[in-house]
Amino acid sequence: MRISSRTWALGLMLLALIQAAIAAAGAIGTGMSYAVARDSFLIPNAMIAVGCAVSGGLIAWHRPRNLVGWLLLGAGVAQTATPAVTPWLVSALVHDDGPTRLLSTVYSLAWPWSVSLFIPLALMFFPDGRLPGRAWRAAVVLAALNSVLQVLMFSAAPNPLVPVRGLDTHGRAVSWLAIPFFNNPTLQLASDIALMITLVAGVAGIVVRYRCGTEKLRRQLLWLLLAATISVAVAGSMRLLGPVESTGFPIILLTVIALIPVSMMIAVLRYQLLDIRLVWARTVTYAVLTAAVVATYLGLVELVDRLLRPRISVSAAVLATLVVAALFNPVRVRLQGFVDNLLYGDRADPVRAASSVAAQLAGASEPADVLPAVCHALRLPYAALADEAGVIRGEHGMRPAMLETIPLLHAGERAGELQVGIRSGEIRLAAADRVVLELMAAPIGVALRAQALSDAVQRSRREIVAAREEERRRLRRDLHDGLGPALTGIGFRADAVVNLAEADRLVALGTDIRSAVDGAMTDVRRLINQLQPSALDDVGLVEAVRRHAALLDRRMDGSALRVSVAADVVPADLPAAVEVTAYRIVTEALTNVVRHSLAGRVEVRIAVLDAALELTVADDGRAVNGRWVPGVGLTSMRERVAELGGTMVAEPTPAGGRVHLCLPLGGER
Residue 39 contacts by C-beta under 8 Å, 6 or more apart in sequence? Predict the structure, then answer.
């Protein structure tokens, strides 16, 4: 029968809790004093182990594929085994009875696995159960090997209960696994260095994940970093405890390490439980403030005491207290403002935030370009700009699950909306954030409406150009298919009159009619060609360009010129405006090469990419007198492209010159 992962998780968690209960029952049953329970590390070991077991059990229950849960469960089971035997080991040593060597073996064998293997690996695999990279595999192997060495080193200690004052073991607490070779200071130093490397690898993995991770991953890591910061701060404060150190109070403070597995559990299962950024803001503010106040107080006491001791006995403490009290609130306000700005941007200063966005908007080519400034001003994870039809015009950041909308108004009319992402850990947009965003909305709304009007003008311009070219195409076909044949027929009839006429006057009149018809035909052909190059109707854009290129085999100075045309599959039903503009610009660009460059080779590329016609004319002409001479006609070329909402670049290259244009096909086809 296959045991499910949830059953294993529940079983291991219960095992750890049972061992913790045995430790508590043993302490009460054997009459263990608080001092012995403290100095033997029974209390911190049990607290940390229970935190690991419960946190790991919950993770393994809900996320069985996440290795972090199982590692914390392993740490909980291993570390609760040591406090479970501690009361019985102390009792056996005090009363000189009981299996002291067996109990000592379990005491030294169990908890080192937690510290040297399970917890370092949990840090490396946090929060998704995967290593940050392949480089961390070596750290995993080092932790596995060093954990065995740690167990053998602690087992080789002649007295595992050295911190317990007044407890003399007389060699009775020697583990069965005691090997004298491993009770070596040099070997112990090497093992401690290896342990430090594995812990540093875990911390480095967290740093790498934070720098390269998503917003969700960073918020998960902030939970662990908050617990680790508190633990380090508490550990560091042990050096400032002075007289209370003799009471063993620092050992009790180690229980704060239990916050680390608890923070891992929250990060994996409920990282949105609180706004971790706000928690960080308050924690960092008051931690730094408290440290500053304590340091200032102690420094002032020491300084004033040295200066005034010969004259005033209590002045130092009184004066220092007054100075600290006077400085406390201004420092708190400034420090809180600094931390809030770090985590929430300029939320406390709406005018400044709106001004920064307005300044960014002034230099932006489109209203959507201001979105990064909006996110930066308030440290928001996401921002998007939608027009009045609800179409997203631009976005910045990763779109979260929760959004809030700020309407953008212009002259009392809705111009669109600004969508912003809710910070992880928050359930709604804060009132202070909304005030700032509403202040930003005014200039953004004006810019969005101006952009909409500009787009409408450009769209109308494209439609006019397209209609003009389509009308020209229609007129050309009408002239070619209607008037042209009619004039040809008239000419033939005039020829017939001349051939059949006997009188000189009739012959002259027929000849005049024929001349007039020929002149009209010439004018019609010229008009047809001006309306649209005939080659486009006959063979299409690509073949028309090839035919024109075939005629250009010499430059103006008589030098040979080779023109090649490369084209992908180009639709035959291109919009008339696009087709004519592309052809005109290609022929103009090739003419410029022939007249003004020193090129020996020109390459023309034609393709349709992303609903746009892209065309490039590149030559290998060397610069003339150190500068590139693009020729004339660039202004009219750019105007033609701008009429269709396209883009054009004419520039020198290391090899010669290049003209590139992109004409959107849009809905005109």
Answer: 163, 164, 165, 248, 251
Contact indicator for 136, 201 with CB cutoff of 8 Å: yes
**DSSP 8-class letter at 247:** G
Using H for helix, E for strand and C for coil, what is the string for 174-220? Answer: CCCCCCHHHCCHHHHHHHHHHHHHHHHHHHHHHHHHHHHCCHHHHHH
CB 562 within 8 A of CB 524: no
Residues 276, 277, 278, 283: is their CA dihedral positive or negative? positive
Is 476 a residue whose pLDDT tops 90? no
Token duo for residue 223: 């939970």
- The per-residue pLDDT for 553 is 82
Tokens 């450009």, located at residue: 458
Map tokens 């908890």 to a residue: 111
Residue 571 dihedral angles phi and psi, to the nearest 5°: -60, 145
Task: Give the start-end residues of each E strand in 544-611.
Answer: 562-567, 601-609
- Please state, in angstroms and rounded to a whole number, the distance separating the CA atoms of residues 648 and 641: 7
Which range, of 76-90, 245-259, 274-288, 451-465, averages the lowest pLDDT? 274-288
Residue 66: which of 265, 221, 260, 271 has the closest Cα?
265
DSSP secondary structure of 406-438: EEEEETTEEEEEEEEEPPTT-SS--HHHHHHHH
Q: How far is CA 385 from the centre of its chain?
A: 19
pTM over 0.70: no
Contacts of 269 (CB under 8 A, 6+ apart): 58, 59, 62, 63
Q: Which residue has the tokens 């269709």?
A: 644
Cα distance between residue 551 and residue 492, in whole Å: 33
641-650 long-range Cβ contacts below 8 angstroms, 24+ apart = 641/581, 641/585, 643/461, 643/462, 643/465, 643/577, 643/581, 644/462, 644/465, 644/466, 644/577, 644/578, 644/581, 645/458, 645/459, 645/461, 645/462, 646/581, 646/612, 648/585
Least confident of 63-67, 369-373, 617-621: 369-373
- Measure CA of the first residue to CA of the last residue in the chain; give whole Å: 67
**Would you say 88 and 26 are in contact if contact means Cβ atoms under 8 Å apart?**
yes
Sign, CA dihedral 590-596-601-605, equals negative
Are 114 and 72 within 8 A, CB to CB?
Answer: no
Question: What's the Cα-to-Cα distance from 517 to each of 168, 483, 484, 528, rounded to whole Å?
Answer: 132, 11, 10, 16
- Coil, helix or strand at residue 669: coil
The two tokens of residue 200 are 């540093």
